[in-house]
UniProtKB/TrEMBL annotation:
Signal peptide: none annotated. It comes from the Bacteria. It catalyses: L-proline(in) + Na(+)(in) = L-proline(out) + Na(+)(out). The lineage of its organism: Bacteria, Pseudomonadati, Pseudomonadota, Gammaproteobacteria, Oceanospirillales. One of its GO terms (cellular component) is plasma membrane. The chain crosses the membrane at residues 6-25, 37-59, 79-100, 128-149, 169-188, 195-213, 248-268, 280-299, 319-337, 372-392, 398-419, 426-446, 452-470. Belongs to the sodium:solute symporter (SSF) (TC 2.A.21) family. It is found in: Cell membrane. PANTHER family: SODIUM/PROLINE SYMPORTER-RELATED, SODIUM_PROLINE SYMPORTER. It is a multi-pass membrane protein. This is Sodium/pantothenate symporter. Keywords: Cell membrane, Ion transport, Membrane, Sodium, Sodium transport, Symport, Transmembrane, Transmembrane helix, Transport. InterPro entries: Na/Glc_symporter_sf (IPR038377), Na/solute_symporter (IPR001734), Na/solute_symporter_CS (IPR018212), Sodium:Solute_Symporter (IPR050277).
Amino acid sequence: MDSYKMFNWGLLLLTFGLLIYLGYLSSKMMKKSDESGFLVAGRSLGAFVGAGTIVATGFSGWGFMGSPGVTYQFGAIEVLGNFFFAPAMVIAVLYFASFLQRKAADMGSNTIPEYIAQSHGGGTMGRVVQGVAGLITIILLLVFLTSQIKAVGLLGASWLGIELDQSATLMVGVIIIYTMLGGLAAVAWTDTVMVCGMALAAVIIIVQILTSVDLSEWETALNAADPELLNPTTGAHYGDHQGTVFLVLPYAFLFTAVLPFMAVRFLAFKPEVKLHKVGVYVAILGGLLSLIPLVGLYVRMQVPDLADPDNAMPVYLEQFMHPAIQGVITLFIIFAMKSTANSLLHTVASATSHDLRLALFKDGATSSRRALFINRGAVMVLGVVALLMMLYAPPFMLSWLGILGTGTLLASMIGPVFISTFWQGSAWGALVAMLVGFFTSGYMMLFADVGWLIGPLTGCAVSSACYVGVSLCTRRPQLVGTPAH
């Protein structure tokens, strides 16, 4: 092992110790709280930690590994698409988080499936809705988690000089430990540390790129390689028309506001948190991380014959960074990918241990100590399941698999989570909307050649229509003289 590999191992072990220590500190919160300590951090997140965990989770492995690979393959249109995530997150924080936070706190909702069930009447039908929402969450986020584990495994393997399966096992093992210890609080605190490193990595990368290449030569080289890279005539992977890239803005807004592993952060804010401060922090951090896909264009100019576009970022670090700086930046990128992986694992475990338990058992409530044991056990079991899924999955492109999971989940949840904020439907409407969104988006992503966004957004439209239509048909007639709610 050379000196730089030893340096990388030292950095990794040091930060592993820090992450586990943060998990230990956050575990003390759960000794002073009920199950909400594990599920929503005891509703204790402040402005900076809340913003940090939102941005870290939203950009993460997709932003640092998937997006440069897509940019290498399809060109600057991905840079534009990536840019829309920061303003979309700010809009979600400023105009949606407050409503979700207040309503969930009033009902005592600790997960998004539980919020859906309680906001649609509860009771037996509410348990069915919660169970279906939890099951859909588990299936689709395990798909997304598989892509995140592969991303962190690939980068860690080249960085540490070990095999993919060894790297992925090491990374997932540490995520399991600190997530088991501290639940969402541990996830949020570690995310905040990670996102600071991610922002620093973004600054270093952009400075290196802009100081090492002449912009006119860069443009000439890319146009010579493929004119579509800088002047696309279609929307490439987003759809046939150039304008389809602008659909990323509403998609990214709904991504932040609706997806359970993102929206649960709104449930975890302190009641008195100033959301405009959260928005400012999100804008700054998100703006910096939006520049990362430029790596794909840089590598396309320098190394035009990559066999696998997803290797754009590892190749960039290996060939264009000093080994010591490469080690530090790679650590920050591993942070980025772990920040989403831990959020996905926590959400999947919560859906299993909390939502399915309450849905399957009428008297599913249990002591705080036993509930915490079940929550932690679910983290361990599902972490191992996701690792095995990654090891035995067929080849796939990281970003496509991520959108398959998140886009289909978005189509499932848009009605009962988002539409219900301004038009309250029925439990039957929520149930049908989730199932229709799941099958519509899933079918279009897997079997229809319509681009990466058209499938999920079509699923959103059909699901929303079903939510409204079925709710109108299944609402109970209002008695004369009964006040409207």
